[in-house]
Amino acid sequence: xxxxxxxxxxxxxxxxxxxxxxxxxxxxxxxxxxxxxxxxxxxxxxxxxxxxxxxxxxxxxxxxxxxxxxxxxxxxxxxxxxxxxxxxxxxxxxxxxxxxxxxxxxxxxxxxxxxxxxxxxxxxxxxxxxxxxxxxxxxxxxxxxxxxxxxxxxxxxxxxxxxxxxxxxxxxxxxxxxxxxxxxxxxxxxxxxxxxxxxxxxxxxxxxxxxxxxxxxxxxxxxxxxxxxxxxxxxxxxxxxxxxxxxxxxxxxxxxxxxxxxxxxxxxxxxxxxxxxxxxxxxxxxxxxxxxxxxxxxxxxxxxxxxxxxxxxxxxxxxxxxxxxxxxxxxxxxxxxxxxxxxxxxxxxxxxxxxxxxxxxxxxxxxxx
Length: 369
Known about the structure:
Distance between the termini: 24 Å
Structural class: alpha+beta
Order of helices and strands: HHEHEEEEHHEHEHEEEEHEEEEEH
Oligomer: single chain
């Protein structure tokens, strides 16, 4: 029955895609036969500025700086679009090396060292970015990178040092003259693949939750995934185990072990109890355990010269409030640790600060393919 429903869904999706394709080409059904390649817009009146709509990975073709930088970048973009049929975009970034920066170590007054840059300058640099790729390892991205490195656009000229705003153009020209071996690289021979600079950092989050764990935490009122901070304090841990291989045989109707269910129930009950006391508590469930965390913090503290971190007072206060109590063992001179409890549910003996797991926009997008 389940496979029948899935097959029906796939057929319906294919039907919609077919209808969508015919709608797009309704004006001239023969366009695709004679012009199978994507048309790239190249209007001299337009400024092709990069946005978040472009792919997360692009090729950094070259950059320009100084007088005439924007015009030369614009001319190169038009040439790449018109002559090479490549989606090219412009991105401007400002640099300021005139301010003081905090260096490593301290001065004789115990304050952080203040340093200045070797060159006191301010300037804008305009980059030309090409392509639109979902993956860094994409074959298309690597092929385009190789192609761009060997291109010789008219815009950059045969002798780049003559009246160009291209960064390091003169140095590349000297290198070519000194290089006696055949060098196939062109004026964009230093091109490389970079992230779209306008994409949010969350898109590229590597330590993000996977789709299955995301489903486990969906619908949870006080899920740790909704925590606005970068750090939190894990105050309780409840472990369980799954009785089937989730990676290879996930089934939404499959059962899990009683210990994992019990772990999730305890975590939820503890969060509810803490929330009733006005405590900012969160729960989080993964394949093997459920945890309860308290607080949201943007930083843990200040790193000392010896490498240790001096914890923020609020972080230290949470750890102390829920850590085990030191009590004397009856009929003995020794002391032991007694875990704190709430509603009959135990906290961890030693709460610890942890990173707040984040939902990755990138992984969520790619999981649909």
